[in-house]
Amino acid sequence: MELSKFIGQKIRNFREQRGLSVEQLADKLNTTRATVTRYELGSRKANQDILFKLAEIFNVNVDDFFPAREKKPSNIIYPKEGLEVISIPIIGEIACGDPITADENIEGYTDEIFEKPVPSGNLFGLRCKGDSMEPTIPNGALAVIREQPEVEDGEIAAVLVDDDNEATLKRVKHQGNLVMLMPDNKKYDPIILDEDHPGRIVGKLVKYSVTVE
């Protein structure tokens, strides 16, 4: 079964279990009845924001919308003292160069090791693509993002730009009413967000990891 249809069936099951009509769920999501129907049929993919809202409405975890994962091999040993392993969803890719269209569908899961205490809030992974954040973050790294709408100056954030159709990973700098997205690689120019070129911070970088082949 296609992932979008699987998620749609789960949405319908959770809705019916909680005695909600399609119209009632649409009101809670601030959308239309037709949109909810398309989510349930799988003809429209529920993005990250919708899945988090649905998880809150149904009082479930985001993981519950996806197929059960295989058990980890019993011979894998993780460090325990002072560390904790957390499974987080990987949501599409994020540009570390020129922004690319962000596909916010969950592509899979990854186990990440955190020092205790583990960062609070919703965590998700985004795959970096490009070299604009080098030497800090290399091309291909997995960025772990904590969902939040604001960050401090100098912090690295995942930002949706151009009417929420594209995403990029940059340092955030506030200057008056402007927000500047600053690359660490000096060969790239900053991206300036204003009324004519809007953007939205979706989360703060809390760590990144690199796979050694």
UniProtKB/TrEMBL annotation:
Belongs to the peptidase S24 family. Residues 11-65 form the HTH cro/C1-type domain. Coiled coil: none annotated. It comes from the Bacteria. GO terms for molecular function: DNA binding; hydrolase activity. GO terms for biological process: DNA repair; regulation of DNA-templated transcription; SOS response. Keywords: Autocatalytic cleavage, DNA damage, DNA repair, Hydrolase, SOS response. The keyword DNA repair applies. This is Helix-turn-helix domain-containing protein. The keyword Lipid biosynthesis does not apply. SMART domains: HTH_XRE. PROSITE patterns: HTH_CROC1 (PS50943).
